[in-house]
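Aim 2 progress update. The chain analyzed this quarter is reproduced below.
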Amino acid sequence: MKQGLTRRGLFGLGGAGASLGLISWPFSARPLATTDEILLNQSGFLTRGPKQIVVRSSGRVTDGLISFDLVEYETGRVAGYATGKVVTTSDRSIGTVDLSLIEAQGTFCLRSGEVTSLPFRISDTPFDRTERALARAFYLQRCGVVLDDPETGLAHALCHRHDALSRKTREPRNCTGGWHDAGDFGKYVATTSVVIGELLSLYEEDPACFKDGAFGIPESGDGEPDLLSEMRVGLDWLMKMQRPYGAFERKVSGNDWPSMTALPDRDTQPRFAYGSSTADTAKAAAALAIAARIFEPVDAEAAGGFLEAAEKAWEFLERHGQAEVEEAPGDDNGSGSYLTKGRTGTNWDRQDRFWAALELYLTTGKKVYAKAIKALASHLYVWPATWSNPSLIGLTNFLRIKTREDIGSLRHEITKRLIERASEYEKLARLSPWGVATQDFGWGSNREVAARGRILVAAYEQTGDDKFRAAAAGQADYLLGKNPFGLGFVTGAGSKSVQNPHHRLDLALRAKGADRAIPGLLVGGPNNEATDDKLGKMAGPDRYRDDAASFETNEFAIDHNAALIVLLGKLTAARPQEAQGVLGRILRWIGL
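Predicted structure tokens:
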């Protein structure tokens, strides 16, 4: 049975009521020892959602039942009691405890013996504050603006006003605007397209959840939801990156990495618009096609421009049927490549083309795009949505949106492969002592974790199977505190979060006397590929360092934030199915 979706208060800050409904179980249970600690999602838990915590011991976690007090954070009053059974995996110093039966609402700590957890919320919308910070970070990354933000104190003069010269011809191009991609000042079509695609697709599912004024940005109060206003920043820049014949240039950056102490307005080196690629052109076409259907009801003129650019890009791709990229030695001296590693042959852009064809068909219904989908269907590959393979965005949109024709067995095949991939990830999560659905911790592993969580939520939407919902929630838990460091990987999220992101604007703010990091930055996370000698022999989820110098583990990027916003938004939307029959009525009566 497909799970129905409702979402309440996304990006809002409405408080939950004080309904407790907590049950004290009569079983014999022990308290934690002083050598134990409780690690959990510091942002919080859904009222009727999974609530798994980790108990870690300096020795060996003892199996059995553990007793907890649920303590109101503000008053210190015990609001109720709970017990949970410890479940260990291969690492016997770590045990998972499921406390999903707790449905009290408010801000609490868990206390067991002399061990007390960090505070957390239980609410129907527990992630709102974190989502707002994640979304607001895009405003702080804007390029070509004067920034003076009263919330964070972050300020700089007008930056990168001359973006950019053509790398090939040295002729001036107007590529101003957009977002700085990460902790430096490069701007990339690949990541911008994925951010727009992910966040506008989330908006499309339930536009009423996105409000004007939610982010506290300069456009707040103009009558348009803040999310759309922020996406216009990326879209306007994306349109400037298209050449007259349809192709999109890949990126804008200087030839050298800017100084770590430089504000963007002090980065005065010449900046270039680098050559085009079919992969970037396809990504941009997909994002603009989504934007065309989202903006059509609110700004038909802008929507028409987005669609015209997307279709022009597709015409370029049809004229250039093989994967191509314009690149030269030195192109990546001061910026990332954002091109598929190890690309060989002529088909390495097929996932991007597939995404573009899907979105153009969903927007226009034209047979030319249905035909292209059929031709590209052999490249149907369910994989976490990242800049290198964003096709999952189109696949899940295709499942959600009704179309004039089914295009063969495509819906069935997408669903089948989606559930197979989610089952693989659910098993990995179950076997991990941290509940994380990966054993591969590469560059940007936190983004990968969020994206895998998105696949798990999608499987729950298609099947209603609670194991997928629980595993998806576990990915958010890991990113927001249930990890080896007990650390929220989003700056400012929870009472113990990342303090030293690799981020030039953050360092500038610290130099002005700020005592905390810019909020809302999801850092890259553990990285087995990191060459940082200070990481020593640490590996897997331990190979991380909260240090501004650790760009390999502690740098933020805009596509990281987008992936986590989507996961948190989808978790909030994925309501549990009501228990049925006599047993269901009894369980609801006693508050379960």
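Confidence is low (pLDDT under 50) at residues 1-26, 579-592. The CA atoms of residues 256 and 334 lie 4 Å apart. These observations will guide the mutagenesis experiments scheduled for the next reporting period.
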